[in-house]
Design brief:
Blueprint lengths: L4 E4 L9 H10 L5 E6 L11 H10 L5 E6 L7 H6 L4 E5 L6 H10 L3 E6 L10 H6 L2 E5 L15 H10 L4 E5 L7 H7 L3 E4 L1 H4 L4 H19 L3
Parallel strand pairs: 1-8, 2-3, 3-4, 4-5, 5-6, 6-7, 7-8
Helix pairs in contact: 6-7, 7-9
This protein binds D-xylitol-5-phosphate and zinc ion (ZN).
Amino acid sequence: MVRAIISPSVLASDFGQLTAECKRMIKNGAEWLHMDVMDGHFVPNITMGAPILSCVSKGIPDIFMDCHMMVAEPEKWVNDIADAGGALYCFHLEATTDPLALINAIHTRNMKAGVAISPDTPSTAITDEVANEADMLLVMTVYPGRGGQKFLDRCVPKVAELRARFPEKDIEVDGGVGPKTIDVCANAGSNVIVAGTAIFNAPNPGEVIQLLKNAVDTAQAKLAPK
Ligand code: DX5
Ligand code: ZN
């Protein structure tokens, strides 16, 4: 049985006080922080890179930075993100031609490796070989590039398909996830939950984090083999 992990997306935070915002989330029960790295190539927007992540990890030495690399040529940034204190390096399958070599490079730098798929990429594009080497699979439930978008229900069957193939793997969902959409995600088998606006804009982020966690725990108890 996989466990519930909540990873608030800092894209919805006040970037001017990023370290304080991460501390606020940890105080509210977040286990991971989801750091959205965008390069203006793989997606139109630019957010932050290794120098900023490095400041955050200096300010919070035991932070778990779940780095979502929405970048072209993800091979280029493995060393910089590792040096900046990244704990998990999640690249987009669409952005690389050699996912196995990339996973290997990420592991060599002692980071966990994640493989993300955008809404138009089928779950079958993640081969057994790649998934077995990866530590986490990320099913995007919006098109990568912006926070606050509407959750795409049509991505949910991909979560179920991956959960059926990989019962013990961490499966993350990202995009438009919040109290209204968590149940379909959790019931399909995702256990790592990213939420930006739903957590950061809530009057009580701790309550939302707990609600998301409970939904995963409840679903996992049902999904677990008897
Ligand atoms: C979208 C990012 C997401 C985003 C999620 O490109 O990958 O992590 O911040 O934000 P919400 O939860 O607001 O959809
Ligand atoms: Zn993300």
